[in-house]
């Protein structure tokens, strides 16, 4: 049974929900108050599990302009621990939210 779904907001999570719902055969309408050329906000971090899902949907992650996050440092005047963020094939990516939102929007 196909549903008619309304999604309020055009951010990364909302657009991801739209992709999943449309691929499941539902009719989806998105309401967003900001225009596509409005400032999309600050940085974004995309974890390995999210990257796997976005790649399964066929999104070009390199086209999002995101960079691999290879290591992080926790510091209070001295190095406490070096955190390794590379787990197998997928990694953590970071960059500007606008690039990822644009890419997710194209994938829907």
Automatic annotation (TrEMBL):
Pfam family name, one: NAD_binding_8
Any GO molecular function: monooxygenase activity
Record keywords: Monooxygenase, Oxidoreductase
Classification via Gene3D superfamilies: FAD/NAD(P)-binding domain
InterPro entries to which the protein is assigned, alphabetical: FAD-dep_Monooxygenase_BioMet, FAD/NAD-bd_sf
Keyword Ribonucleoprotein annotated: no
Family classification: Belongs to the paxM FAD-dependent monooxygenase family.
Protein name: FAD-binding domain-containing protein
Originating species: Cladophialophora psammophila CBS 110553
């Amino acid at each position: 049974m196909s549903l008619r779904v309304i999604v309020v907001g055009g951010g990364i999570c909302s657009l991801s929900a739209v992709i999943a719902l449309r691929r499941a055969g539902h009719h989806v309408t998105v309401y967003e108050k900001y225009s596509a050329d409005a400032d999309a906000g600050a940085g974004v971090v995309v974890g390995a599990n999210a990257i796997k899902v976005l790649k399964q949907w066929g999104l070009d992650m390199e086209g999002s302009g995101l960079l691999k996050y290879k290591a992080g440092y926790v510091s209070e005047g001295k190095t406490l621990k070096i955190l390794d963020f590379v787990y197998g094939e997928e990694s953590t990516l970071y960059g500007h939210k606008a690039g990822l939102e644009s890419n997710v929007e194209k994938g829907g």
